[in-house]
Amino acid sequence: MADLKLTAARKSFGSIDVLHGIDLAVKDGEFVVFVGPSGCGKSTLLRVIAGLENVTSGEIEIDGERVTHLPASERGLAMVFQSYALYPHMSVRKNMGFALENMGLKPSEITARVDRAATMLRLADYLDRKPKALSGGQRQRVAIGRAIVRDPKIFLFDEPLSNLDAELRVATRKELAALHANIGGTMIYVTHDQVEAMTLADRIVVLNAGRIEQVGTPLELYNRPANAFVAGFIGSPRMNFLPATVISDDGTLRLSVGERDIALPRAASGLTAGTRVTLGIRPEHIDLASDAGMLAASVDLVEQLGGETFIYATAPGLPQITLRQDGQSRFGRGDAVAIRFAPDHLHIFDASGAALARP
Amino acid sequence: MRLGNLMGQRRNGAGRPLHWTDIAAYAYLALGVVLMFGPVLWLVLSSFKTQSALLEFPPSPLPFAQVEVTVPGQPQKLPLFRTTLPDGSVRELAQVRRVGLLAQMVDPADPSKQYRVAIDKREPVRRVAFATENYTEPLQRFAFMRFLFNSVFVTFVATLITLLINSMAAYALAIYVFPGKQAATLAVIGTLMIPMTIILVPVYLVVTELGLANSLWAVILPGAATPTGVFLLRQYMLTLPKDLIEAARMDKASEWQIYWRIVMPLTLPALAVLAIFSIMWRWNEFLWPLAVLTKTEVYTLQIGLNAFQGELQTQWHYLLAMTVMTLAPVALVFVFLQRFITTGIGSTGMK
Amino acid sequence: MSDTPSAARPQPGMAAGALARVAVLPVDLALRLLDPPMRWLQRVIGVRRMPYVFLLPNFAFFGLFVFLPIGINIVFSVTGGSALFPSERPYVGANQFAYLFDCGSFLDPASCREDHFWRGVANTAKFVVFQVTAMVLFSLITALVLNMKIRGRGFFRAVYFFPVLLSPVVVALIWKWILQRDGLLNAAITTLGGQKILFFVDPSWAMFWAVFVSVWAHMGFYTLILLAGLQAIPADLYEAAEMDATPRWRVLTRITLPLLWPNMIVVIVLALIKGAQTFDEVFVLTGGGPGTATLMVVQYIYETGFASQVQNFGLAAAASVVLGLVLFVLTLLQFAAARRKEI
After folding, report:
1. Domain count, chain C
2. What is the mean pLDDT of residues C28-56?
3. Does B254 reside within a domain?
4. Residues C127 and C27 grouped into a single domain
5. Domain shared by C331 and C281, yes or no
6. Less packed terminus of chain C by CB within 10 Å, N or C?
7. pLDDT tens column, A129-174
8. Domains located in chain A, CATH noted
9. Between chain B and chain C, how many beta carbons pairs sit less than 8 Å apart?
10. Mutation choice for A interface testing from C243, C251, C263 by most A CBs within 10 A
11. Is residue C294 located within the same domain as residue C165?
């Protein structure tokens, strides 16, 4: 178990900059998830930490030791690859024991460790099989087992669930969480799926175009996104973004939203009249009433899932709004509804996308 | 592969120092260049030396010829030597004649003065010169052009025939389902087990019976149907979408038209690979033509060259030039198509 | 082939395309003329029978020049006399085989009735052992080196492949010239203070150079096959090995070579098959000499059937049958090896 510190890490491939100055500190035993859209640099960041790629500039420290120029084989890290990268000609036992042989451990010690990991991952019956005789989920567990037996300083996971089908993904997610609780190592996990991030992480690092947008616990990111990107990325269904213009801000924030004006009790944020802002409200924080609300809208589509309902409505002058309601809804297509935003859950973003502080 | 990934050669120039295995690798490759190209280079250089120059030992790297000068008062050009005179001075003198151990020499600048010099006191003055007559004379004296024509004819015609009949067979095996298809495929595989080397004599009988003995057709025909060609083309044709053929049939195209106007144009990449293999093989073919061609006028280039070395045991200057001319077409093909060939073999060699 | 990278196509494609179009024109015309009769044929025998028409030319050639000869070969091997036409040859049963196999000791060619045949067998066996070993070894090393991220890899790959394109006559003459008594190699030896060596007069040297020249000429082909096999190994296996802190030599012995092994088997068997049939370069280089020191089996067949004063077709055919059986076994091995590789 170890902690990790990245200082001003930059990575360029030729003239293309993939990572722009990443500063990050991961605590001992933490489960950190790097999340972001395709091409945001999260895999590159992981590989840079692993040592499979060299940073163009910046420093990497593991447990206080500078490893920036150490090759991957000497950093004491273990990686679970997206494709699992199991040695096809070796049995499961040999796959898991290979690194231990390299470390020069005694055969008895190797067998002990492999057996322990195999039991933990329910692979004990498959130890003598070759990878091609295993299912996708089993192969993935072998890949994890290979990492566990090494007792590494940090575990690195590169989109490990992306090759599994949906059902298996959920089951494996729970197993990974249990694993972390069990063996407690420092784990860095890369995914593009924000659900995996929210469910597994102690802290999430949201990346976009090679920069860190925000670092925080899942609920911090959910409740207090630092900018519109994080707000839109975390949480499903996606937050609604509505363009608005400031009318006045003097104890009560008055905004012109679509064709209506709404008033929100907020401490003055120093906004001047006429400033364009973006209102952010999550579908689950929108209330519906058939009488007066903040906005009048008409229902375009209702999706009844039984336990919850998604309603898509349009208010004049605004993009379509997504609402989430518990249980089953009585509204139907074409109904006029009044929408009310829960003021405590309203986010306001300025023109550059940064969130304005909340009272 | 080991080194590159391990030592991160694919990582971006992080100033990684050269490992000893890198140096060893480059040294090995450099040695390879010397070993693979060197002998050919030596062949080419030697082919430009005159017959007498070839007799020198140790041989000089470049072809040299002795400089000859015109001296006023002398009818022919005289060879020039760097001579050490009795008085110790060194001068370039032209040799008029040589009698035994003495050479009669004149100074080109001052022809009236004659010198008598011992032959060991002089060294030829040389310049780099290419004896291109090594190349032109055999064309006149020996039937080199005939051999060249024969080789070109065999290669061209044989390749055409091979492409045609192999593609027809591949077409049948790839597109159609018919009784006996399995047997036919097995028969083609069986042919793979029967190389020319073990049926030399009977094929000779067949060829003689057909009245083709000592004609170029005796070389062209026996090898025209190649199992590897059939499989190569069949493999490629299997990847073509079947709907094209169905559509063509609906458009009232005949099977022949489908083969010729639709499938063949789409199979061009594989045909190109087969054509290259066929050309290379036919141009270099040796054993069978050696066995079946006994008359000089039907010799292919390879057989002619081999016959030369038998006759011309001591006329290496012609032999070397002939060899260079024989290898020139291949070298040209190589320069232009090498990437194409090497990737073609890399993928098909794994059959 | 769909595998051909498009980057390699433009340059040869333009020249070859233009050439092909010109060459194909008359052929295209001729074949278009065939359409009416083919249509008629199709009408008569039906579409379902057309595949036989397409198979016919190729199989006619196969039948006439491969299957028929194999049968005739057997006939030749069990008939004697000096006539070419089987009908004029008297049946002698297994006599010629008996003659071939009439040996005091199989290990001593000199004790055999047909000592040249057994010399050929011994020489071919010795040649194959050395040549295949050297060739596979050097091809492997070269493929491993080429697989490293070397700059100019395409160039070096072409360098090693170049001799494969040369004709056996050219190859043999190139080296014959270097190995002359007054040739380049002896010049180097004498410059270094040694004595000239008469390579073609010493049986051991002659065999050595036969093997060397053969490896020189064919190595590139096998290098390419092994290189393709190496490149088929997924890159992330090496990254996983790196994360597993695997020392370099162990990556080679525990990962690279085991995964390359199926390809190596194919290469070895292929080299054995070609090696057993070796003739061209050796014949031009040494003529089988000195004496019979480098006489190979195929040369024996050629000489017995074609080049000697008295052509003995029967004996040559018998020897061909023996060689054919050996090749048959090896080819079966080749299929087994290729099948194993795919699994």
Report:
1. 2
2. 83
3. yes
4. no
5. yes
6. C
7. 999 999 988 999 999 999 999 999 999 999 999 888 888 899 899 9
8. 4-233 (3.40.50.300), 241-349 (2.40.50.140)
9. 345
10. C243
11. yes
CB contact at 8 A, C179 and C210 = no
Q: Are C102 and C54 contained in the same domain?
A: no
- C51 and C170 in a single domain? The answer is no
Do B96 and B171 lie in one domain? The reply is no
Best mutation target among A12, A47, A54 (most B Cβ atoms within 10 Å) is: A54
Verify that B86 and B28 share a domain, yes or no.
no
Identify the band that residue B255 occupies on the pLDDT scale cut at 50, 70 and 90.
confident
Mean pLDDT (chain A, rounded): 90
Instruction: Indicate whether B183 pLDDT > 70.
Output: yes
Question: A58 to chain B nearest CA, in Å?
Answer: 12
Q: Which range marks the domain in which residue C58 is found?
A: 17-64
Question: Domain check: are B139 and B115 in the same one?
Answer: no
Residue type at position B102 = L
Distance, in angstroms, between C229 CA and closest chain A CA? Answer: 15
Judge whether residue B4 has pLDDT over 80.
no
**For position A1, what pLDDT does the model report?**
77
Residue C170 to residue B199, Cβ atoms within 8 A: no
Per-residue exposure over C24-42, b if at least 16 CB sit within 10 Å of its own CB, e if not: eeeeeeebeeeeeebeebb
Domain shared by C45 and C132, yes or no: no
Q: How confident is the model at residue A290 (pLDDT cuts 50, 70, 90)?
A: low
Residues B153, B18 share a domain = no
Chain B touched by C68 (CB under 8 Å): yes
Residues C100, C54 share a domain: no
Query: How does pLDDT run across C269-290, given as a tens digit for each residue?
Result: 889 999 999 999 999 999 887 8
Could you tell me whether strands A31-35 and A186-191 are parallel, antiparallel, or unpaired per DSSP bridges?
A: parallel
Q: Nearest-CA neighbor of C96 among C256, C329, C314? A: C314
Query: Rounded CA gap, A248 and A272, in Å?
Result: 7
Contact C239 A81 (CB under 8 A): yes
> What tokens appear for B207 in the block?
């060829």
Q: Does A77 touch chain C (CB under 8 A)?
A: yes
Q: B171 with B262: CB under 8 angstroms?
A: no
Q: How many CB pairs under 8 A join A and C?
A: 54
Cis link prior to C290 (omega < 30° from 0)? yes
Query: Nearest Cα to B338, choosing from B55, B36, B60?
Result: B36
Interface pTM (ipTM) of the complex? 0.82
Q: Is residue B332 part of a domain?
A: yes
The answer to whether residue C32 is domain-embedded is: yes
Residues B174 and B296 in one domain: yes
**pLDDT > 70: percent of chain B:** 89
Domain carrying residue B27: 3-45
The verdict on a CB contact (< 8 Å) between A83 and C243 is no
DSSP B107-163: ETTEEEEEEEEEGGGEEE-EEE---THHHHHHHHHS-HHHHHHHHHHHHHHHHHHHH
**Residue B208 and residue C72 in contact, taking contact as beta carbons nearer than 8 Å:** no
Whole-angstrom CA distances from A338 to A264, A289, B169 are 17, 5, 75
**H or E segment at A19?**
strand A16-26
Would you say C264 and C226 are in contact if contact means Cβ atoms under 8 Å apart? yes
How many domains does chain B fold into? 3
Is B11–A53 a contact, with Cβ atoms under 8 angstroms apart?
yes
CA A175 to chain centre: 18
